[in-house]
């Protein structure tokens, strides 16, 4: 009897347990989706961490626009801060995805303006004009290009930087050989360097009836003028009251004391240099103490070859009693720095009648009117 009781009890327990399991299964089937336990999906960052470069995220259009706008702001700030390497890196990445974005291309022009010769900036603007951008952008770029070219030619002519003018104008003349402004600028640069063959070859790009042919022939085919005669070994074209500047002899050269605003500098007197210049060391020493304006980068000829140099305009330079305002000077790269704070060239000396007395180490100056 005991065996049957145990057998009956076991079957009863087994039956009750089965019913409980069955009821639990039926309950889970009827349960609503919202009541079911949810296993969270991995986040985008989790998937990128797991899958590496094989997983790409989908960026909504408004997100892409926001990212591009933020990058433009970032690049603009880097340009203002003078962090040109980071600005260039971000620009290159942005232009890979948006090669025809006008804002990015204009930012690239700003970067080139600060880091490359101005002829490169002009050619960059020409590339933009060839892209078929909107009429508004086309007009903006055209105006910037013309202003850049006008200012560059004027500044280089004022500083008598004829080599720099030739190097600036040559690629533009080749790009647009029918452009009269480029032709005249390049022909002038060659003429002033006494290269009549190159001058004539450049002017040949103009129509035969262009008045420039006669003007250049009249201006640059002149006969050398004889020097005025002097009576006696001590004769001088200066009055006794003419200002004199004491020079410091340095071998066969002379050092001239000047002041850029109130900052004293010593420049190497060089009548063979068409333009005056400051060394990079001297400029970095005084740049926070003077008012100056950056005019662009140009390729100039130095004793060590062609170098890129910045052209600046300083508020004033004083030599003896004379004060010259709004003077343009180059900032020489360190590799080309002279044995002084810079060079005093003919764009400044040419504004005077001057005489160097090597016996007394004296510079006599008389301002031309």
Question: What would you say this structure looks like, in words?
Answer:
- The chain is an alpha+beta fold and 369 residues long.
- Among the domains are: 69-153, Serine Threonine Protein Phosphatase 5, Tetratricopeptide repeat (Alpha Horseshoe); 158-205; 244-367, Cathepsin D, subunit A, domain 1.
- 48% of the residues lie in helices and 21% in strands.
- The chain contains 13 helices and 11 strands.
- Strands 3-4-9-5-8-7 form a 6-stranded mixed beta barrel.
- Helix 5 packs antiparallel against helix 6 (118-129).
- The longest helix has 29 residues, at 2-30.
- Residues 25-57 have low confidence and may be disordered.
Query: Architecture of the domain at 244-367, according to CATH?
Result: Beta Barrel
Largest sheet: 6 strands, mixed, barrel
Rg, Cα atoms, Å: 38 Å
Which CATH first-tier class of the domain at 244-367 would you pick? Mainly Beta
What general form does the structure show? globular
CATH overall fold name of the domain at 244-367: Cathepsin D, subunit A, domain 1
Under CATH, the homologous superfamily of the domain at 244-367 reads Acid Proteases
Order of helices and strands: HHHHHHHHHHHEEEEEHEEEEHEE
**Mean pLDDT figure:** 82
Count of β-strands: 11
Number of helices: 13
Give the quaternary arrangement of the chains.
Answer: single chain
Low-confidence segments: 25-57
Output the structural class. Answer: alpha+beta
The CA-CA distance between the termini, in Å, is: 144 Å
Keywords: Hydrolase, Membrane, Protease, Transmembrane, Transmembrane helix
Organism: Salinimonas profundi
GO molecular function: peptidase activity
Transmembrane segments: 6-27
């Amino acid at each position: 009897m005991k065996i049957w009781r145990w057998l009956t009890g076991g079957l009863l327990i087994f039956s009750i347990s089965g019913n409980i399991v069955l009821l639990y299964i039926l309950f889970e089937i009827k349960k609503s989706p919202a009541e079911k336990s949810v296993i969270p999906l991995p986040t985008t960052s989790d998937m990128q961490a797991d899958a590496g470069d094989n997983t790409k995220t989908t960026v909504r259009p408004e997100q892409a626009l926001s990212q591009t706008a933020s990058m433009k702001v970032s690049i603009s700030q880097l340009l203002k801060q003078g962090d040109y390497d980071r600005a260039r890196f971000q620009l290159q990445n942005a232009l890979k995805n948006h090669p025809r974005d006008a804002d990015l291309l204009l930012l690239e022009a700003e970067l080139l303006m600060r880091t490359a010769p101005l002829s490169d900036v002009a050619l960059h603007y020409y590339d933009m004009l060839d892209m078929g951008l909107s009429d508004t952008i086309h007009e903006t770029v055209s105006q910037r290009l013309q202003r850049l070219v006008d200012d560059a030619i004027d500044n280089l002519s004022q500083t008598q930087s004829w080599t720099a003018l030739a190097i600036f104008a040559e690629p533009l003349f080749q790009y647009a050989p029918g452009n009269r402004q480029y032709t005249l600028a390049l022909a002038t640069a060659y003429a002033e360097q006494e290269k009549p063959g190159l001058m004539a070859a450049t002017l040949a790009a103009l129509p035969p009836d262009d008045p420039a042919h006669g003007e250049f022939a009249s201006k640059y085919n002149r006969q050398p003028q004889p020097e005025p005669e002097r009576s006696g070994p001590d004769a001088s074209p200066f009055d006794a009251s003419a200002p004199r500047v004491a020079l410091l002899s340095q071998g066969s050269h002379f050092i001239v004391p000047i002041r850029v605003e109130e900052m004293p500098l010593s420049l190497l007197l060089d009548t063979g240099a068409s333009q005056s210049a400051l060394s990079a060391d001297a400029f970095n020493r005084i740049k926070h103490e003077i008012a100056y304006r950056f005019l662009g980068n140009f390729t100039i000829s130095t004793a060590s070859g062609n170098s890129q140099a910045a052209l600046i305009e300083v508020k004033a330079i004083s030599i003896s009693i004379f004060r010259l305002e709004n003077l343009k000077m180059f900032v020489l790269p360190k590799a080309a720095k002279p044995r002084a704070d810079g060079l005093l060239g003919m764009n400044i000396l040419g504004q005077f009648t001057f005489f160097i007395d090597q016996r007394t180490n004296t510079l006599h100056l008389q301002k031309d009117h």
